[in-house]
């Protein structure tokens, strides 16, 4: 794809800040886990500020601590991912506790400074806030005195971007949690209904859970009332235990023994700091043990071990707690089936139930698959659907030598629209814009998708630059025809869109990201030129 350097107003410092802010905005839109995006943000910030350390720490309100989530530092430091300290401790803890911006020109004269990097002379911290809640802290440290004299406003802006990123991640995590819970519990029910020996059923469930949650070990331990013991009934994963399936588990050892004694879930984010942990696999970092209860009675325990500190975050723990409840019913059912197998009772009824469950499961899976490709607000394709289509069309265009075009559309001053009219009106505006754009597309093979927030994309297969520009102008006119008032815009006081157009013939040495980059650059140029217009990259 062709490349072009955008030109902006202001001096080099201002231009550098704008480039950084634009870069972070693009990071926020990337389809990556939140931790990876935060890591890219701190790396970008460190490069821009030319300091020695930049970190992002999230707030663990329940424990009244802050925890390092991302770190960019080239020098030896005690900081690491997962490092935590109490709120109020150090400059970071102070900002985390009070939600402020603190610039310390000289840490030597700052009474609350806590050294984590030898030789630090100045520090700048800004709170990442949303609706009055301090969600995280951005921390910058330098070996130079007063290194951040002119960086406070920039860090506050970046903190606002990170806040938006974290809020969006929260919403996405909740949606994923619901989908994961539905899919997981349905599959566990299906595995339980497959019948067979109790041990085989439990082994299938353990293998499924280990794979679904990407853990090193998933163990199912059942209470043997006759023997008054805890028995290892099933195990899947890579952990190595001295005990084998069918053998007794020590009642007084490990986190499992503690969970049994207390009768409640035990979450250990770092087993290295837990005195009760019994090592089976040196790769294990986190452990989560859940009681399996049926009608108030303890059937056994579900033991999960993972290699990542964040493997059992709050959302996953909620899913696993619900899964344990579902699993209790599944295990009880499996036990019942085993007792009934000798007499061969209710075989026909169970067979019919299995058929119906499979039908419902297929229907549910089909519905979930369909919904997973749609944007919940606008009803058009979502980012996931677009990413898959872009990859497929890129490969097809590469094979046949066809042109491929991409439009990136952004509603102008949409934040001001949301702030002025309210989020409900903003949602309605997004729906109406999506409807107008969909109606203006004339070819069945063209794909309209919501890329994120107020940004839309249109993928145009077998389309050159001229045809793509005509399509973009048609879409621009369709939005203008809505004639939606926008008293808070900096332009025509009507809702409008800026559109960036990129076209080309894919090359084997390039990737689809190049097409997205060109369209983004065109969109950025449209914004710089005054918004409410179409700009074709390279045109």
Attribute tags:
6-stranded antiparallel β-sheet; Beta-Lactamase; 3 domains; alpha+beta; single chain; Alpha-Beta Plaits; 539 residues
How is the topology of this model organized?
Layout: H1 12-29, H2 34-49, E1 53-60, E2 65-73, E3 84-86, H3 90-98, E4 101-104, E5 122-130, E6 133-142, H4 152-193, H5 198-212, E7 217-224, E8 229-237, E9 248-249, H6 254-262, E10 266-268, E11 286-294, E12 297-306, H7 314-341, H8 347-371, H9 383-400, E13 404-411, H10 414-421, H11 423-440, E14 447-452, E15 455-461, H12 465-482, E16 497-504, H13 512-528, E17 534-536
Parallel strand pairs: 16-17
Antiparallel strand pairs: 1-2, 1-6, 2-3, 4-5, 5-6, 7-8, 7-12, 8-9, 10-11, 11-12, 13-15, 13-16, 14-15
Explain the overall architecture.
- This protein has 539 residues and is α+β, with helices and mostly antiparallel strands.
- It has 3 domains: 12-172, GAF domain (Beta-Lactamase, 2-Layer Sandwich); 194-341, 2-Layer Sandwich (Beta-Lactamase), CATH 3.30.450; 383-536, Alpha-Beta Plaits.
- The chain is 45% helix and 22% strand.
- It contains 13 helices and 17 strands.
- It has helices at 12-29, 34-49, 90-98, 152-193, 198-212, 254-262, 314-341, 347-371, 383-400, 414-421, 423-440, 465-482, 512-528; strands at residues 53-60, 65-73, 84-86, 101-104, 122-130, 133-142, 217-224, 229-237, 248-249, 266-268, 286-294, 297-306, 404-411, 447-452, 455-461, 497-504, 534-536.
- The strands form 3 sheets. A 6-stranded antiparallel beta sheet has the order 3-2-1-6-5-4.
- Helix 1 runs antiparallel to helix 2 (34-49) and helix 1 packs parallel to helix 4.
- The longest helix is centred in the first third of the chain and has 42 residues, at 152-193.
- It is globular and about 80 Å long.
- The protein starts with 11 loop residues before the first helix and ends with a strand.
